[in-house]
């Protein structure tokens, strides 16, 4: 006699209900809940169907998830539990539009919103499986609060989040009581063996401020060459670093062995300016320079709602980049030929300034690629950009992880934080956090006191 098959609800302890915001953040999310079950409300599929057309990342995420669901379900009915591939994995299903018997989110919060129907889907599962813990997973804080008010467990999607953003990698360390012999060798020769500093084996490319009784020396640990190299202030396209941190940033930007650079810092620290100036300084080494940023429209409406043609729609969003290029141009007030050369770079598309969505799909071969405001990207968007890098391409991400305009992202879950934490020991990567503002004393007042 064959053994009876145990019922699904007795096998698993939790059912995670995924909101649309989670899918748009990570289309592979439903594979990341280990042995637990995953439920997708039918309203999520409706929302994804409305978002599948377009060239933005969220459109690509919607399409990718729909394809994954289709592949995972095969010939099976999706409103029944379907096993996810892999050992000790859970099951998934699509939850139909049911009204719960006890608490009705639409009756409480109002009808006509997908969010409230998603809440009802979770509430219906809670009634159907009282012995299980039903957890709504959403990047939408307000939706999580509404769920909790209805006695539903709710949590953020944790995959890709940096656990302690206050201890995020800065790329620089100050070392005291360094031997005078090592500093003398660095000063006279410009470099020394990294073994003399007795660094941890896993240490990647990193900047050090070496202190002794004498004047401190700034050095760079070249992990490939196993060297400590002196960092000196270098002018880039007539822009001179104003502090040690900026000198470190320029060193990383000019280093041909470093193919991926991140610069994190508050407003006015010079992130974008140094990146553009360094790119122009190396213009002969690259086929083109791309400077881009993600467009985050006001009130989260698509720029198609704005009046005018495509150029007039996007120009306001790209204005900060043009301001930096104009500032560089102003450094050559006594050299009209240099100013004309900068204008020529733009007219001949040696330097291309455009929104990230306009550049998506291009081949990044021998390109100096700068992505400004990278804190407004998801980890998957960051991965997609880097994966398009061809031979002899350098990619630079700049941003402030505490100044995020994209809904459902925060200092812990944005792509820039994720990249800094994930790539910190890779030999092709260098990072520096800029703390000192150089825009003006008034700007520093705002950053420090308000």
Quick structural summary:
The protein is α/β, with parallel strands linked by helices and 450 residues long.
Largest sheet geometry:
6 strands, mixed
Total domain modules = 2
End-to-end C-alpha gap = 75 Å
Rg value: 26 Å
General form: elongated
Give a verbal description of the structure.
It is a single chain. The chain is α/β, with parallel strands linked by helices and 450 residues long. The protein has 2 domains: 8-155, 5'-nuclease (Rossmann fold, 3-Layer(aba) Sandwich), CATH 3.40.50; 237-449, Rossmann fold (3-Layer(aba) Sandwich), CATH 3.40.50.300. Helices cover 36% and strands 18% of the residues. The protein is built from 16 helices and 17 strands. It has helices at residues 8-11, 20-25, 42-51, 57-73, 105-109, 114-128, 141-149, 180-189, 244-254, 271-281, 310-330, 336-347, 356-359, 379-387, 415-423, 441-449; strands spanning 14-18, 37-41, 82-83, 91-95, 133-137, 153-155, 172-175, 191-193, 206-210, 217-222, 227-230, 260-265, 288-293, 351-355, 367-371, 394-399, 429-434. The strands form 3 sheets. The chain has a 6-stranded mixed sheet with strand order 3-4-2-1-5-6. α3 (42-51) crosses α4, α3 runs antiparallel to α6 (114-128) and α10 (271-281) crosses α11. The protein is elongated, with a radius of gyration of 26 Å. It starts with 7 loop residues before the first helix and ends with a helix. Mean pLDDT is 89; it is low at 1-11. It comes from Pedobacter caeni. Keywords: ATP-binding, Nucleotide-binding. It holds the Pfam family PIN_4. This is PhoH-like ATPase.
């Amino acid at each position: 006699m064959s053994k009876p098959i145990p019922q699904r609800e007795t096998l698993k302890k939790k059912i995670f209900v995924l909101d649309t915001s989670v899918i748009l953040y990570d289309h592979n999310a439903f594979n990341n809940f280990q042995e637990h079950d995953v439920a997708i409300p039918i309203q999520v599929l409706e929302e994804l169907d409305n978002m599948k057309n377009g060239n933005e990342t969220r459109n690509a995420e919607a399409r990718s998830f729909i394809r994954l669901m289709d592949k995972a379900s095969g010939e099976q009915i999706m409103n029944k539990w379907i096993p996810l591939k892999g050992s000790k994995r859970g099951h998934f299903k699509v939850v139909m539009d049911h009204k719960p018997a006890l608490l009705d989110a639409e009756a409480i919060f109002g009808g006509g919103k997908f969010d409230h129907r998603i809440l009802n889907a979770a509430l219906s599962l809670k009634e159907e499986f009282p012995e299980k813990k039903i957890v709504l997973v959403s990047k939408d804080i307000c939706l999580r609060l509404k769920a909790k008010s209805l006695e539903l467990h709710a949590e953020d999607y944790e995959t890709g989040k940096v656990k302690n953003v206050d201890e995020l990698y800065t790329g620089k360390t100050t070392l005291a009581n360094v031997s005078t012999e090592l500093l003398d060798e660095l000063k006279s020769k410009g470099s020394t063996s990294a073994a003399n500093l007795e660094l941890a084996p896993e240490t990647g490319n990193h900047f050090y401020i070496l202190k002794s009784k004498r004047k401190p020396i700034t050095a760079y640990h070249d992990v490939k060459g196993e060297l400590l190299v002196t960092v000196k202030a270098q002018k880039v396209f007539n822009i001179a670093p104003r502090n040690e941190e900026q000198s470190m940033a320029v060193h990383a930007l000019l280093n041909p062995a470093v193919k991926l650079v991140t610069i994190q810092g508050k407003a006015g620290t010079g992130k974008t300016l140094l990146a553009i100036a360094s790119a122009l300084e190396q213009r002969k080494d690259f086929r083109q320079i791309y400077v881009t940023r993600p467009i985050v429209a006001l009130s989260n409406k698509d720029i198609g709602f704005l009046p005018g043609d495509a150029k007039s729609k996007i120009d306001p969003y790209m204005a900060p980049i043009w301001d930096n290029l104009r500032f560089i141009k102003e450094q050559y007030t006594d050299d009209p030929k240099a100013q004309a050369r900068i204008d020529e770079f733009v007219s001949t598309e040696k330097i291309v300034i455009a929104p990230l969505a306009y550049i998506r799909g291009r081949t990044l071969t021998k390109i100096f690629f700068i992505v400004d405001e990278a804190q407004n990207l998801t980890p998957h968007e960051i991965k997609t950009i880097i994966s398009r890098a061809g031979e002899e391409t350098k990619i630079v991400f700049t941003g402030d992880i505490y100044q995020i305009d994209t809904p459902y992202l925060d200092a812990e879950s944005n792509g820039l934080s994720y990249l800094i934490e994930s790539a910190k020991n890779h030999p092709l990567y260098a990072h520096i956090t800029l703390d000192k503002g150089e825009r003006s004393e008034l700007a520093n007042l705002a950053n420090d006191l308000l």
